[in-house]
Specification:
With 876 residues, the protein is of the alpha+beta class. The protein has 27 helices and 32 strands. α2 packs across α3, α11 packs parallel to α15 and α16 crosses α17.
Length: 876
């Protein structure tokens, strides 16, 4: 069953108001719904039947305008309910029963530990009651929650509190009212024995908003960072976008069992506990950063997603691309803009580029899907954010603000399209984005091939850029895109030259120029270059493209040391390392060119560099990313040379690494400042290189750092290096440390996830056997998505050399797990498939073994849409 954008029809009926009453019980919850329906004047008239979505519901009663319907007046199907010949305006009442405890898919109403909670995006509301479960039906919700106060003392829903009472039978009934019309995917309830961590925020217009983070008892001391992040996000959205919070209360709940990161339900954001709970002893710096970003992301959805929502799910990037862009900018403002950009681009290249060149490639606005849950992708989120970023950059800050103001004013309270958004950018920004719109409809990563030459006699530098987008499934032909290319020209002293285009009478100030690429081939003539410049191309990663220019190694080292653009300094270092590594694979050598170590040494000796940025520069490209750069992924070769290069850095630069490590160990207490996090990142990177080289002092330092247990960032880094140590003796010490780690953290689920993941990612040859043993560990559970990701996901996606073992053991293991998981939780099962969808990139033997697993899965009867779609498309 394929859903297509071109088939979009406005809904025949609208729902203005909904009253819901849930009598909550883990095994059998009763849901009474009353819908005020009206025929949509904007829709074409059908046969008069009302068709409501509904799945896994047991219908107990149904009446229309107060009169019970006879069986002839409606028709009940597996996934919908037809009510025959309804009047143009009516009140429909239904009563259904659902079983939250049996709901292992974690969509709709389900049980997590002792609490009841919901996840409705994208199409989970239909598992709660019969409804028009589509985002362009926006209704006002009133919700009553009835429950035993001893089991479920806290009863939450969207909107504002609207009173409560105790029923004759002793149960409590709590009322909520959300004054803002919203689509059903933003509905939420939570019931449980929870404690609130409270604060308050005063909005720009002076309204004091109570903020509550609800957690399971015992976690109250881990909410500080999330709360601080929320308050910063609320302030930032007022200052940067003029967006104020709109309800009387704002609630967050942390849940242990959750399919994704978090959910922006109106006034009641529900989070994977991983993105709320943190103390320095339990969470790493990356965890803290993740919390800040995700808390902000969900909060920002209140305007970009909730007040203005999506017309249909093809428009998902309308809210996700824009909101990711907003959270990226927020994090850039809170920490280091340069480092944040590097992290975001690294993620884009590692996850979105492969997606865009694989069997699941789709445009930012997809044309069709079988299962929408499969389209919460890096393309919709991260590439979507890049597409918004390009528009923001094309407009510049002032015009972009004008354009977003227009967007908020024009579409508040509506369900709209990505095209509506672009129209506001055009109008507010006063530019033509006709060609630019192709970024939304065309899949694939454009490749830019650059060539240049220099005429010393006239001082003219010529740059020729060809764009080409490889074909993707369903899109054999590609059209040229409008691509903003940021260009700098660097002189021999490392200074930016003015970029004066032919035809311009005056040279501009030295610095970056944005060139607009529109044609398949564009040529630029730059005047007044007294010497041959080194081009610094695609500064700041000005467009989500693959850039090719025949840099020499000297040029890359030069840019790595001198480019005024921090992003391109990092990128030059990455390209340099990538070249060295791929050449080592090709030559089947472990010998490292001296010039490479020299460039690293020079970088290490720069005491003025920002430690966080330096850590990024000195981090080698991942095995996964390197594999993507090869025609046929050489799993073992990549692993071998990357280990060898790390060891060569560790031994060749031991003194420099030691000096930097010493400098980064601060005597002061723990804090989360950018400087402190940067020092930890850099110090731990140095330590990892030293240990990889078997450096005795480094080993001792790692052991000491682990034993010190100062904070989780340092503990995990030390433990990881010990576990990966090249010699048996240290590896034994690592095992001991691992056991101690378990003892200490057995009662902290989020820390235990790290314990599972560390073992799953170990490059030791016996890792698969260990992972299989860990499936039997009492703390492992297939019904907890975080645990599944920590063990199975970390192995399949985070351990290329062991997962892709030539004997196919990793593939069989994953195939087995997917078949076990699919009946339980199709969304999680489908996500785990990802590494096998890349089978075409490997050698014949591995291809054959991966395909065998995919084919075996496809043969299984009763597969979920989620898994079916990914597997069948991968095999096409
Ligand atoms: N809207 C949520 C967010 O981006 C994610 C929802 C994911 N839903 C899903 N079915 N995968 O914050
Ligand atoms: Zn989102």
């Amino acid at each position: 069953p394929v859903t297509r954008l071109s088939d979009y029809q406005p809904p025949e009926f609208l729902i203005d108001d909904v009253s819901l009453r849930l009598e909550l019980d883990a095994e059998q919850t009763a849901v009474d719904a009353e819908l005020s329906l009206r025929r949509n004047p904007a829709a074409t008239r059908g046969n008069g039947d009302l068709r409501l979505d509904g799945e896994h519901l047991a219908l107990e009663a149904i009446s229309l305008n107060g009169r019970a319907l006879t069986p002839a007046e409606y028709q009940l199907e597996d996934d919908h309910l037809l009510v025959h010949r309804v009047p143009d305006r009516c009140r429909l009442q239904t009563r259904v029963r659902i079983n939250p405890a049996e709901n292992t898919a974690l969509e709709g109403l389900y049980v997590s530990g002792g609490m009841l909670c919901t996840q409705c995006e994208a199409e989970g509301f239909r598992r709660i009651t019969y409804f028009l479960d589509r985002p362009d039906v926006m209704a006002r919700f009133r919700v009553s929650l009835v429950a035993d106060p001893a089991r479920y003392p806290v009863l939450l829903s969207n909107g504002n509190p609207a009173g409560e009472e105790t029923l004759a039978d002793g149960r409590r009934c709590v009322h909520w009212e959300d004054p803002f019309p919203k689509p059903s995917y933003l509905f939420a309830i939570v019931a449980g024995d929870l404690v609130a961590v409270e604060d308050r925020f005063t909005t720009a217009s002076g309204r004091a908003i109570p903020l509550c983070i609800y957690v399971e008892p015992g976690n109250e001391d881990k909410c500080d960072h999330a709360m601080r992040s929320l308050i910063k996000a609320m302030r930032w959205d007022e200052e940067r976008y003029g967006r104020e919070y709109d309800l009387d209360v704002f609630n967050i709940v942390a849940v242990s069992h959750f399919n994704m990161g978090a959910m922006e339900n109106k006034g009641l954001n529900v989070f994977n506990a991983k993105y709320i709970l943190a103390r320095p002893e339990t969470a790493t710096d990356a965890d803290f950063a993740g919390i800040e970003g995700v808390v902000a992301h969900e909060y920002f959805h209140n305007w970009t997603g909730n007040r203005i929502t999506c017309r249909d799910w093809f428009q998902l990037s309308l809210k996700e691309g824009l909101t990711v862009y907003r959270d990226q900018e927020f994090s850039a403002d809170m920490g280091s803009r340069g480092v944040k950009r590097i992290e975001d681009v690294r993620l884009l290249r590692a996850r979105q580029f492969p997606e865009d060149s694989g069997p699941m490639a789709h445009p930012v606005r997809p044309d069709s899907y079988i299962e929408i849950n499969n389209f919460y992708t890096a393309t919709v989120y991260e590439k979507g954010a890049e597409v918004v970023r390009m528009q923001a950059n094309l407009l510049g800050p002032e015009r972009f603000r004008k354009a977003t103001d227009l967007y908020f004013e024009r579409f508040d309270g509506q369900a709209v399209t990505t095209d509506d958004f672009v129209a506001c950018m055009e109008e507010g920004g006063g530019i033509d984005l006709t060609q630019f719109r192709r970024w939304y409809s065309q899949a694939g990563t454009p490749q830019l091939d650059c060539e240049d030459d220099y005429d010393a006699a006239t001082g003219t530098y010529r740059l020729e850029v060809r764009q080409h987008t490889p074909s993707t499934p369903g899109q054999p032909e590609k059209q040229p895109l409008h691509i903003p290319l940021a260009l700098g020209l660097v002189d021999a002293e490392g200074r930016d030259m003015p970029v004066q285009l032919a035809g311009e009478s005056q040279p501009p100030a030295p610095g970056t120029r944005i060139l607009a690429l529109r044609q398949p081939v564009e040529r630029f003539e730059i005047l007044g270059c007294a010497t041959r410049p080194v081009p610094s191309l695609l500064r700041g990663f000005s467009a989500p493209v693959q850039l090719c220019y025949p840099y020499t190694e000297e040029q890359l080292s030069f840019l790595m040391a001198h480019d005024s653009d921090g992003f391109n300094r990092w990128d030059a270092a990455q390209t340099l390392a990538q070249r060295v590594l791929l050449a080592m694979v090709d030559d089947a050598t472990t010998a490292v060119p001296a010039s490479f170590l020299d460039a690293f040494r020079e970088a290490l000796q720069d005491e003025t560099a920002d430690p966080a940025l330096l850590a990024e520069v000195l981090t080698l490209p991942s095995e996964g990313y390197l594999g993507e750069q090869m025609t046929v992924v050489d799993v073992d070769g990549i692993h071998r040379v990357r280990q060898a290069l790390a060891a060569a850095i560790g031994s060749g630069l031991a003194a420099e690494l030691q000096a930097v490590y010493a400098r980064t160990r601060s005597e002061e207490g723990f804090d989360l400042s950018h400087a402190a996090m940067g020092r930890r990142a850099l110090g731990n990177l140095c330590l990892a290189y030293l240990v990889r080289a078997g450096d005795a002092q480094g080993l001792e330092q790692a052991q000491r750092q682990f034993d010190g247990q100062a904070n989780m960032t340092d503990v995990i880094a030390a433990l990881r290096t010990l576990l990966e140590a090249p010699d048996a003796e240290t590896a034994a010490a690592g095992e001991q440390a691992l056991a101690g780690f378990y003892e200490r953290w057995a009662d902290e689920p989020l820390v235990l996830d790290k314990w599972f993941a560390l073992q799953a990612q170990s490059s030791r040859p016996d890792t698969l056997a260990r992972v299989e043993r860990l499936l039997e560990h009492p703390a492992f559970s297939l019904t907890n998505p975080n645990r599944v990701r920590a063990l199975i996901g970390a192995f399949a996606s985070g351990n290329p050399v062991r997962f892709h073992a030539a004997d196919g053991g990793g593939y069989r293991f994953l195939g087995d797990r997917i078949l076990e998981l699919d009946p339980l939780n199709p969304q999680i099962a489908s996500r785990l498939l990802y590494p096998m969808t890349r089978w075409r990139r490997y050698d014949a033997g591995r291809q054959q073994q991966m395909r065998a697993q995919l084919e075996r899965i496809l043969e299984v009867e009763g597969l979920s849409n989620d898994v079916y779609e990914v597997v069948s498309k991968s095999l096409e």
